[in-house]
Input
Amino acid sequence: MNPPILILHATGSNRDREAAWACELAGGAPEIVHVNQLAAGERRLQDYRMVVLPGGFSYGDDLGAGKLWAVALRHRLGDGLAAFVAAGRPVLGICNGFQALVKAGLLPALADEKMTQQATLTRNDSARFECRWVWLEPQTGSPCIFTQGLTEPIYCPVAHGEGKFVARDETMLAAIEAQGLAALRYVGRPGTAAEATAPSGAGYPWNPNGSQNDIAGICNPAGTVFGLMPHPEDHVIPQQHPQVHRGERGLLGLPLFVNGVRYAAQVG
Amino acid sequence: MIYCVEVSIKPGLPDARRLGLLGQVEALGVMGVQSVAVTDLYFLSGDPAAGAPSGLDADGVQRLVAELLHDPVVEQVMWRPLTAIEQAEPRPGVWSVEVTLLPGVTDSVAESLLAGAAMIGVHGLRQAATGRRYTLAGALDADQVERIARGLLANEVIQRYHVNALAAPPFVETVQRETGGVMGDAAVEVIALRGVDDAGLLAISRERRLSLDLAEMQAIQGYCRAEGRDPTDVELEMLAQTWSEHCVHKTFKAVIEYSGPAAEPPHTVHRLPFTVHRPPSTIPIDGLLKTYIRAATERAAKPWVRSAFVDNAGIVAFDEQFDLAFKVETHNHPSALEPFGGANTGVGGVVRDVIGVSARPIANTDILFFGPADLPWERLPAGVLHPRRIADGVVAGIEDYGNKMGIPTVNGALFTDESYTANPLVFCGCLGILPHGAHRTDPQPGDLAVVIGGRTGRDGLRGATFSSMEMDHQTGAIAGSAVQIGHPIHEKQVLEAVLLARDEGLYSAITDCGAGGLSSAIGEMGSELGALVHLERAPLKYPGLRPWEIWLSEAQERMVLAVPPDNWPRFQAICAGLDVEATALGEFTGDGRLRILYGAQLVGDIDVHFLHDGIPRRRLRAEWSPPPLPIAHSPFTVHQLTDALLSLLGQPETRTKEPIVRQYDHEVQGGTLVKPFHGAANAGSSDAAVLAPLDALRRPATGAIRRGVALAVGANPFYTALDPYCMAWAAVDEALRNVVAVGADPDQVSLLDNFSWGNPNLPDRLGSLVRCVQGCYDAAVAFGAPFISGKDSLNNEYTGADGQKHAIPGTLVVSALAIVPDIDRTVTMDLKQGGDWLYIVGLTRGELGGSSLARRFGAAGWGSAPQPPADALDLYRALHGAIASGLVRACHDCSEGGLAVAAAEMALAGGLGLELRLAAVPRSADADHDAAIAFCESLGRLLVEVRPSASDKFEALLAGHPLARIGRVRADDRIIIAGLDEQPVIETNLVAVEQAWRSP
Output
């Protein structure tokens, strides 16, 4: 049976429908549910095997990207999401959803500091919203269940103004790296000189926002909660590839969803 | 107690906002600023109306600060009671500028802060406001700081600023002003209209800024005499709004006496159905809309047109299951005064038009006309914002609304000319999708008149009449209330609520609440039935609005629906679940009267038939005569054609728009297949966008070929001065060939026409418009492409403080929506492979008039504007056949800068060089020199890349049309164009071309 997947809609979410489509193509049974429906008890988190927090501008990002959604996760869903995570069920946050998970303290959620903000996603170095396609390299040895077994990069768009990953301090960044939590990194175009990441990193525009260590996405130590700024849900069929007219195919974002859905089907 | 919270980036961390500001300060021409620091300000208040004790204590503020108001990783924060803050002694070389919104201006951050406070359980917070402090350091004097504050940091139409002084939170003033506001009987004024003479009528129109002429005022007077009483302000304002140019398009419906030459365009002799509307010297025109625009649609008689010129947007069939809705609007006047808010609400408005036909928006477009970014300050008319500031604000406003609503902005254009300095033009388009038959338009007596979405405030009052006036240098000060700030998240939630209600069949009619507010929305929906409205039920942003203000307010993000009473509970539940406010204001009655109550008081009672049909038809005079004959053959002396090419690539119309377009999310919804950028490095600008709507993609796969929809625009206002007729043809043809270039079927194209013109009461302005509309008709008929929607924005004239009139060139934007039969058969414009052959299709003529080349090199008399092409439709059909057969690897239309610029764009997009022979180009006799062949802008031409192995088939499909193989793609980076003598006249390479194209 296709595992039921909750696509969490906050007021202002807007990439929920594509996320649902990606989950569908990956073999899941997605349902878009508003935070209000959970808060009112019309739907229950525990009835779903996986939660996706999609992209958008929750509450207008008015007090910082994902900030009010993080507040809503903590204050309106009670322990619901924490319990869902503790049960080992997978959670995926994309773009605004990633921002909310980080600001709610659900990512990276290192050590004993549960629900404490340990990192942030702040204004792009360009000080602008930018929409462009980027390449993402999976970290080998990461515990992330969404990137398990991925051997080739993912190619997909970013579309954000506040996507620069910054850890709280050097110790936190070192811990993220030591535990392999930086599951996806921005890299230059595969097969070109730009791919060979220099010590200084991929550089702009490959790293579109100035993220530390080219970090595009991170997971929690268990690998079950994962968030990323780019939009793998916008590259799930070959026709979406910007160079499809030049004969290029592949590097889809779909495998992340396939992994998540497969894991969701197995976990209790 | 009022608290002030100050948030800034921690010392030592980079603040991305600072750098951008420094650049903008320099662009203002103020040198010497060494640094700019930005501090976000939040003002928090407990319950000031009750005075002390405040409902908000220090613990509450501390929680708000800790949990909502800063990012602990990168920001520092401090807070204190406002009374505890003393203005620091001015330090030499350091200035502070504090900026806050004017009272009543939408402050969405403050709204979200209130919502967040409720979420975390801080219930004592009653009011919130935001502001910003800029700290400037450097060798500056007070005048320079003022200039930075006015020119960059604050717009006094919506904000105020304080130099080296503390800002007061705007909510304080709001409350004081509103305390004890006028209510009750005194809130409604009766205007003594019946007894006054004509001069008196005109005085009333002028003093109340009704924008009604004498005949219209007389009609109202006659109605009032028949009704036996004078009108209330509610009624008079409603009539002015309903009868405004913006809402009723009286110019396009007017009877026009037109004098012009018997136009028989020189080249248009081939099989074009020109005879019908070719004017004799003077003809009466029974309405431009009816005679030309609608007539073209009727003549095309396409069965797939579902709705044209009836609903808020035009509707055509997409496939057997879905329809598409398309609308383009202008928001020119508001964008001139407050560029961010004007463009922001322009997008919001056109998106509401699409929601108003029960469709989900799936793509936005934007077509912009600005003054030059580098306009010297001394050339700026008094009271006008600098073009650079207008451009920055407009782009930010479009970005904000489209991105936040999750609608990809996929196509557009940018034109720059000094004539747009005082009257910038902002065209915003929106495409939507809906299940066939899902849009209901039959309100019933007894249905509730429901308003949903944002609250009603004083914002946007008289926007409809304001947009129908000419502006002067005081307009900004007087009409500030016509400008608004949008709230895209409200509209996003309204959209979701409407679509859920649509799918459950809960409403019988829907319309957007735009210009004219509730007056327009309920008035139109009840135009047959009549309605009874209780104004006091309207949810307000703040107290103190008078009834006519509630009725006319153009507060954003509202929709009006007719909901049968049985569906009302379910409808309310849907809205509540999505955080959308819904209010039943009254009901539709069926008695043909629009009755408006405020409490127990009847403040308006008007016959809907008079309201909608009582406007006297205008009779206008129009004349057009061609400009003095241009020199047929230019004394063209630009011999350095390579330099000319590089120079044209750097012109605003041609150079890369990447710095703008990357700020728009063009990928959201996952359906953007032909994107704004393609090519080896994703940098080439596409001719058109192709979308695969997610609703269609998500259908269970049947293995069938999947359809897409292409969007493109055509415009070239620089031809207007030569001949508006040819300009219209150029716009229609450009829109057509753009969609054909990406793989759309030329027999399934729908068109939208948007006119921005000057004052139609001046015969020369109107004559030029008439001639343009005639061109629209002939072109649409020739292409068999129906117009399905359109809009006109007139009176784009500006009288400066110098008393001089600044008018725009008559500007037509044609938008095309076209079906792409197979999303696996689309084409992009980047060259694909060295060794492929390059063909040009279409005939090249020596038409340099109004061209990029002529404009760049300053010669006006370089021949005629491009003339209507012969047989273009057949040519496009043949080309489409080749594309549909998979024979075309790259295709690009020749527009600004002609063949040479098109070739260079294809090369740099593909990262491949090319070589061309001008001698091989099919051309008419007057195209007799290299510059004309390389740079003329003749219509109906495209440059096509074809594999050598496919060339036989390609040539066979194009047989009988002007076609020639004129060169090939090179494997290296060289661009070589040989002249008529077969010697290179243009020689350059990709590096030089790209540098020119990216030049600032």
Notes: Chain A is about 25% helix and 20% strand. Chain A has one domain: 4-266.
